[in-house]
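hi! just following up on the protien thing from before. the input was this:
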Amino acid sequence: MMAFPESCWIRTLPFTPAFILFLMSHQIQTGSAELAERFKVIGPDRPVVAILGDDAVLPCHLSPGLSAEHMQVRWFRTGFDSLVHLYENGMDQNQHQLPEYQRRTELIRADISNGSVSLRIRNVGLHDEGHYTCFFRFGTNYDEATLELKVAGVGTALSISVNDHQDRGIRVVCESTGWYPEPDVSWKQEDGQSLTSLSETETKQQNGLFSIRTSLLMRTNQYRKVSCHMRNTVLNQERESSISISDAFFHRVSRWVVSLSILLLSVLTPCGLLVALVVHHLRKDSKERAKLSADIESLSAELEWRRICSSAVDVTLDPETAHPELILSEDGKSVRHGDTRQNLPDTPQRFDYSASVLGREGFTSGRHYWEMEVGDKTDWDLGVCKDSVSRKGRIKLTPEDGYWAVKLRDGEYKACTSSWSRLRLRVRPRVVGIFLDYEAGKVSFYDADEKSHLFTFTHTFTEKLRPYFYTGRNAGGKNAGALRIRPVPAWE
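and the predicted 3d structure came back as:
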């Protein structure tokens, strides 16, 4: 039988749609197999840096940039079976994924046809730091690349305080928490010259994060203004805070030193005149020391308020949680109680009985401060709550039920403790400040205009917390008006 050339044989076959698809598939697979014999896996040549709590994206790609849609792509840690993420047969295959990565990883496939398959890891923690291997396999051909993930965190805003005079000087203390890795710490004069050699620094580590306490002893006011600096060397990000101390502090300190010197002299040389001088100086110095203590207390209060305000966050109201009778502004900054119930979906996130709403923001660490204008409203609740609280039916505002709040009812201000604590306030607050210090386990409330403390809850937090607001219901117009989130004024 006469053999026809292959080209002639193909021309004699019927070109049905199924046959055309078969030819195309065969050609693609053949071409891919040829390329697969030559591919290499390329990773970054320097560590990938991610911020604690944010997402990390680990890049990896093929060279040449052929399609990886029909390949196996495996990400793993120390061993081939320590699986972080697996893509095979055109889909994710994470049945044997390490427990700590479950529901936290995503293979970014937008550019997979060109061989790029970056891995996203959500909500990065310290345990995620280390080496990862990106592995590709097509048939019997494979290659891999190893890369390093570094995790870093910038600590809280620096808190500067002034301790009472000691060692013939004044000790300035600077503190911050939540750093990783351990930051560089320095003190500087106003002209930028270093004072670090004159300082003492203590470092503590808790849950892998570093807390820093550094102090500088100022014996004279030759520096006038000093600044504390802490810098994350991985992110090259720095926090700074400065303080100016007047000559009056050192003047009073020096008077106290003179009085002590006279007292010692009188002991060594008994003399009526010296005793009289000692009495005179001690009386005068008692007033000076009282004034010095008052000045230090006033300065410490201003520094504490500055520390709180430096933790200001931009809070907005979450319409998905708002009771159907609440009306939110378009910018999400104010809420009032309406006259009618809106037709809104009754989701698990929405309050259905209490006229309440949550903030969009959720907090699992750090310090956070925001302010709410209550004005002349006669009925309101403000505070924080667990993200997991039930929003259905009556709610009970107690720490046991996941709420840390203060309230106004019938002209009385109360902290919503287990038995409700009455707050006796000198001035009726028109703006309430809420300060959450997650690691310290504190939720504090302030009269923001008076810069005065109202109440503090203490608790060990283990869950996400969200701002909580209750407008109260309109009662014949007596509780009309809106609750408004106020931008935190700059500290002066």
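The first strand starts at residue 40 and ends at 42.
Residues 1-13, 19-36, 250-275 have pLDDT under 50 and may be disordered.
cheers
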